[in-house]
Design goal:
two-stranded antiparallel ribbon, single chain, five-stranded parallel β-sheet, alpha/beta
Amino acid sequence: ANALNLVPEHNLGDAALASRQGLDLTTLKIYLTHHRSGTFVLPAPDSLVQAEDVNADHVKTVLGLMTELFPVVIVDTSSGIGEHALMALEFATDVVFVASPNTPNIRALRREVEAFEMVGLIGAARHLIVNQMEGRGGIGTGEIESTIGLPVSVQIPRSRAVAVSTDEGVPILEDGGRDPAAKAMRELVTMFAGSGGSASRSGRFRRKDR
């Protein structure tokens, strides 16, 4: 909500509470916040206490209704493999893994991908995004691919404009101009909105893990 400069009246915690009494499409719409881009947002709970009350069954109910309401649903999860992320995977047509080009992050993501494969959780298409890529030095794309075991779909270069856009609540795709990071993010969007993405052909739900 902060990154989109939204001041929502409701959030996922409210929707989860409502699901205990029986949440339907009409009621869910009350908890969504409209963004000027035309998208609708269901923000995270306001507090850790409220977040503790949201369980996997609540997530299942909300996501089931969201996929009925919208042709595309994007879930931004926390890092790691929690019960909420696991539930989101049951709906996902595409999983977007986001890695930073540093050794601890890449090794952690490799363990996560291996865990998913061991328990057979991912039937969805997988995409690897490298975020904050440095122009020179550091870990190269080839090393990242060989470590994680996935090809890099898009590289997003480090850019001050991204931090500014987040602080100001104006998505860089709205006001990024020719910034290289904005260009890379447009490429990412095209993977799904264009003709080449697997999601555009066969699915309607995405999960992003960062």
